[in-house]
């Protein structure tokens, strides 16, 4: 007995953000919409003020002035990109002023079932942009320039790019009424439920997506037809809500993938100078995803400009560069960020097909403020040897015109197995002390003990790559990603131990334990049990429904054994 010692129907709406007459005020307006998106923004170019926020839907969503300014500047390619026609890209901005309202329970439920790398952002917003710039003689500037932006805390880049591809052309043709209809359709979508395949209708199309779960195998896509087998129209099936085509994104840097993986694993500062916001944002997102299933714990900005509110913070020379991956298109950053240790310069994409010219490793001293040639400018030396067999298979597959999806899967599997080989020895460390205390305590992590264990239980057991694994682990221990991994691992162990502790209490003979206990001890047990029950019901640690039911019965039984005055205090009418 030591363990004992320790939404209704959707309201009718008129214009966005306002209730129709006679409708009752909802408990959570736009609850289903906000499970996917924070808001939708329209940014246009004004001759007098430059980029301007034209519309925000729903209209009652509050953005700070700094957030509005960031969205405006980041929704347009800068003048160096020369983007004509339709362009899609993404950005990520810091949320100002912290959380403006407590997270609803649905968010906690989603995060408890989602992989750590796909949980909702708590302090940043993603912006998914569809920008159109076409010649228009009716405009004073001679061009029509407008962006449609989806703002979300979900890192579902593939889903939101596909959604923009459907709704943006309609919006540019029909404008506000079309956007209002789309927002109302999204407000009828089911919430993103990890492990579920969902049908999401919008503008006459049904998007079918699988929401990843932490119990999914990371190298497979369990998408299946769901719901209505005879669904009309036929669903547009997305193979992933978040995965980009890694082979396409990494084509210019295939010979440096090993080095870039190490830089991402270690959370090193990196600038990606690309010819367009599309290439910039996709490269940054591909880089930060290549260490999955680890969560990328550093800051990253898929597209960043000189107008960003963090420009001074990131470019200061008075302190070491921050652990950030910056995607930029303005060559001005070559001069401004010369003191950064790693700069990746990407050239124009090859239009004729085939593999683009590969970037080479170059010394930082060869950086030129003007006309910097493509290359990875760094003094870093990779700890692991390059996987020549992988490069040969990728290049061979390209020459034989293998499907791009197969090459992307090959590259993603290689990076996934590489990261898993690195992480598996860390997971093998005993996470808690024997159950001599209640609840049991987690054992601290000792780096020296771990490094000694690598001789017989290291990554060489699961990975053929040779090199200085020991040196890579030593640098990893000093990186933000080790701190992030350890915090997440500790959190998972605490949740598991709390669940085991609650099960132990529920399986114990509480009546026997109570015989020699004072009223104070019994009341303390009731309060602790209640606290654990509330946390378990809020998905803060995993327990079976049967355990929750037994805990509730135990609470009622213990309270019933107390004097009437204490019962009245613990269960006020």
UniProtKB/TrEMBL annotation:
The keyword Ribosomal protein does not apply. GO terms for molecular function: guanyl-nucleotide exchange factor activity. PROSITE patterns: DENN. GO terms for cellular component: recycling endosome. It comes from the Eukaryota. Keywords: Guanine-nucleotide releasing factor. Residues 38-492 form the UDENN domain. Transmembrane segments: none annotated. It holds the Pfam family DENN. Belongs to the DENND6 family. PANTHER family: LD41638P, PROTEIN DENND6B. This is Protein DENND6B isoform X3. It comes from Hipposideros armiger. The lineage of its organism: Eukaryota, Metazoa, Chordata, Craniata, Vertebrata. The gene is DENND6B.
């Amino acid at each position: 007995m030591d363990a004992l010692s320790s939404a209704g129907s959707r309201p009718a709406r008129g214009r966005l953000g306002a209730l129709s007459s006679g409708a009752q005020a909802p408990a959570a307006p736009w609850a289903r919409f906000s499970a996917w998106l924070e808001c939708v923004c329209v940014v246009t170019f004004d001759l007098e003020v430059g980029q301007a926020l034209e519309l925000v839907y729903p209209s009652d969503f509050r953005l700070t002035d700094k957030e509005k300014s960031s969205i405006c500047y980041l929704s347009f390619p800068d003048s160096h990109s020369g983007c004509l026609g339709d362009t899609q890209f993404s950005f990520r901005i810091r949320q100002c002023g912290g959380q403006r309202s407590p997270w609803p329970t649905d968010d906690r439920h989603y995060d408890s079932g989602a992989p750590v790398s796909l949980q909702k952002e708590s302090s940043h917003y993603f912006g998914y942009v569809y920008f159109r710039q076409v010649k228009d003689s009716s405009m004073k500037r001679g061009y029509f320039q407008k962006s449609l932006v989806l703002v979300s805390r979900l890192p579902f880049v593939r889903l939101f790019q596909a959604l923009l591809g459907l709704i943006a052309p309609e919006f540019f043709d029909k404008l506000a009424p079309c956007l209002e209809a789309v927002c109302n359709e999204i407000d009828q979508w089911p919430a993103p439920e990890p492990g579920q395949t969902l049908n999401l209708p919008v503008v006459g199309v049904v998007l079918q997506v699988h929401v990843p779960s932490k119990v999914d195998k990371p190298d497979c896509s369990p998408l299946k037809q769901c719901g209505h087998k005879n669904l009309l129209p036929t669903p547009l099936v997305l193979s992933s809500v978040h995965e980009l085509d890694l082979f396409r994104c990494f084509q210019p840097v295939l010979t440096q993938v090993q080095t870039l993986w190490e830089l991402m694993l270690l959370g090193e500062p990196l600038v990606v100078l690309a010819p367009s916001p599309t290439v910039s944002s996709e490269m940054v997102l591909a880089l930060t995803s290549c260490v999955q299933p680890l969560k990328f714990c550093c800051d990253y900005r898929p597209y960043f400009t000189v107008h960003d509110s963090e420009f001074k913070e990131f470019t200061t020379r008075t302190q070491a560069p921050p652990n950030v991956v910056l995607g930029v298109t303005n060559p001005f950053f070559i001069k401004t960020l010369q003191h950064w240790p790693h700069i990746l310069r990407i050239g124009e994409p090859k239009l004729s097909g085939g593999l683009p010219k590969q970037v080479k490793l170059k010394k930082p001293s060869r950086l030129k403020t003007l006309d910097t040639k493509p290359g990875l400018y760094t003094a870093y030396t990779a700890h692991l040897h390059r996987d020549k067999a992988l490069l040969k298979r990728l290049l061979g597959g390209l020459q034989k015109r293998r499907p791009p999806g197969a090459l992307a899967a090959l590259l993603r599997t290689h990076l996934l197995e590489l990261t898993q080989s690195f992480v598996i020895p860390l997971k093998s460390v005993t996470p808690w002390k024997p159950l001599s205390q209640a609840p049991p305590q987690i054992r601290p992590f000792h780096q020296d003990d771990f490094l000694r264990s690598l001789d017989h239980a290291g990554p060489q057991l699961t990975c053929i790559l040779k090199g200085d694994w020991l040196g890579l682990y030593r640098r990893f221990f000093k990186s933000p990603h080790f701190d992030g991994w350890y915090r997440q691992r500790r959190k998972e162990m605490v949740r598991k131990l709390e669940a085991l502790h609650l099960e132990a209490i529920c399986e114990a003979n509480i009546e026997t334990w109570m015989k020699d206990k004072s009223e104070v001890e019994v009341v303390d047990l009731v309060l602790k049990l209640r606290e654990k029950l509330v946390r378990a019901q809020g998905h803060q640690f995993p327990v079976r429904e049967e355990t929750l039911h037994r805990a509730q019965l135990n609470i009622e039984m213990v309270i019933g054994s107390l004097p009437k005055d204490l019962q009245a205090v613990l269960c006020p009418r």
